[in-house]
UniProtKB/TrEMBL annotation:
<dbReference type="GO" id="GO:0016024">
    <property type="term" value="P:CDP-diacylglycerol biosynthetic process"/>
</dbReference>
<feature type="transmembrane region" description="Helical">
    <location>
        <begin position="19"/>
        <end position="37"/>
    </location>
</feature>
<dbReference type="GO" id="GO:0005886">
    <property type="term" value="C:plasma membrane"/>
</dbReference>
<dbReference type="InterPro" id="IPR000374">
    <property type="entry name" value="PC_trans"/>
</dbReference>
<feature type="transmembrane region" description="Helical">
    <location>
        <begin position="189"/>
        <end position="209"/>
    </location>
</feature>
<feature type="transmembrane region" description="Helical">
    <location>
        <begin position="125"/>
        <end position="142"/>
    </location>
</feature>
<keyword id="KW-0472">Membrane</keyword>
<keyword id="KW-0594">Phospholipid biosynthesis</keyword>
<feature type="transmembrane region" description="Helical">
    <location>
        <begin position="215"/>
        <end position="233"/>
    </location>
</feature>
<feature type="transmembrane region" description="Helical">
    <location>
        <begin position="43"/>
        <end position="60"/>
    </location>
</feature>
<keyword id="KW-0548">Nucleotidyltransferase</keyword>
<keyword id="KW-0808">Transferase</keyword>
<feature type="transmembrane region" description="Helical">
    <location>
        <begin position="95"/>
        <end position="113"/>
    </location>
</feature>
<protein>
    <submittedName>
        <fullName>Unannotated protein</fullName>
    </submittedName>
</protein>
<keyword id="KW-1133">Transmembrane helix</keyword>
<keyword id="KW-1003">Cell membrane</keyword>
<comment type="similarity">
    <text>Belongs to the CDS family.</text>
</comment>
């Protein structure tokens, strides 16, 4: 037992996170997502909306700590409006509601005069595009009749990328991938992500979506690229603001934004891939 404890502590130290809580939280989130999609898909849209509101609270708090003025309450209303519009009106609803929300928030900001207007407008634009707009594509993936299968495939792709990149990096990672942005990322971890996500994508497309496995391999490679970009972008933001995590809500993961950073960047790409496969297969 002491040997297992020592191994676990060594992994935690190398990864910078507690492994077991991270696994339990991840499995719990997957179960919650599956239940919502299996029984009533609109509940899934609500869960995504709640996650985005929690994430935008973390982002708003982080921006405020470095002098960017913004209103979390106003942004939260915008997240809810964008999420609801996306579910009921599709991609047109996502585009129109994002544009309308940005315009409305800027107009409301005029009440405070010109002081910090540029900072307020910049942080608002980044927050809206980064979270409810990109995150809205997760809702779009769930809208069709095969929404359960599509979202499960999306989770397989994201899960393979994150999990195997993490495990391979922790176990054998030696060559830093982007040391100035994310010191924990390794070339070996990236290779692990590429192999595992390609295999996971092929299996998910063949057995879950009942489609050509080669589409799954292509989607897997695309997911590795977009998810890695999303992770690096959030890491760059945190390092610029001198933060280790965006929050502490999820044990072993940090904040909500720390958990969904790769997913929100991959969602538009996976949505487009699924639409193309549906149209041309």
């Amino acid at each position: 037992m002491s040997d297992l404890h020592s191994i676990n502590e060594a992994i935690n130290k190398r990864a910078g996170r507690k492994l077991l809580p991270s696994i339990f939280v991840g499995l719990g989130l997957i179960a919650l997502i599956w239940l919502s999609l299996a029984f009533e898909r609109v509940i899934f849209a609500g869960l995504v909306s709640i996650a985005l509101i929690l994430a935008i609270q973390e982002l708003s708090r982080a921006f405020t700590s470095v002098g960017f003025v913004n209103s979390f309450r106003t942004l939260a209303v915008a997240v809810f409006a964008i999420s609801a519009s996306t579910w009921f009106a599709g991609i047109n609803g996502l585009a129109v509601s994002t544009a309308a929300s940005f315009t409305a928030i800027l107009l409301l900001s005029l009440r405070h005069g010109t002081e910090n207007f540029i900072k307020r407008a910049s942080s608002t634009a980044l927050a809206l595009l980064y979270l409810p707009f990109l995150g809205g594509f997760i809702i779009l993936i769930a809208r069709p009749d095969n929404g359960l299968a599509a979202v499960m495939t999306f989770l397989v792709l994201i899960g393979c990328n994150d999990t195997f990149g993490y495990l391979v990096g922790v176990l054998i990672g030696k060559h830093r991938f982007a040391p100035n942005i994310s010191p924990k990322k390794s070339v070996e971890g990236l290779i692990g992500s590429i192999i595992a996500t390609s295999v996971g994508g092929a299996l998910a497309f063949h057995y879950v979506l009942e489609n050509d496995y080669r589409y799954g391999i292509a989607a897997g490679l695309m997911t590795v690229f977009t998810a890695t970009c999303g992770d690096l972008i959030e890491s760059a933001m945190k390092r610029d603001m001198s933060l280790k995590d965006m929050g502490t809500l999820l044990p072993g993961h940090g904040g909500v934004l720390d958990r969904i950073d790769s997913a929100i960047f991959s969602a538009p790409a996976i949505y487009i891939a699924l639409e193309l496969v549906k149209r041309f297969s």
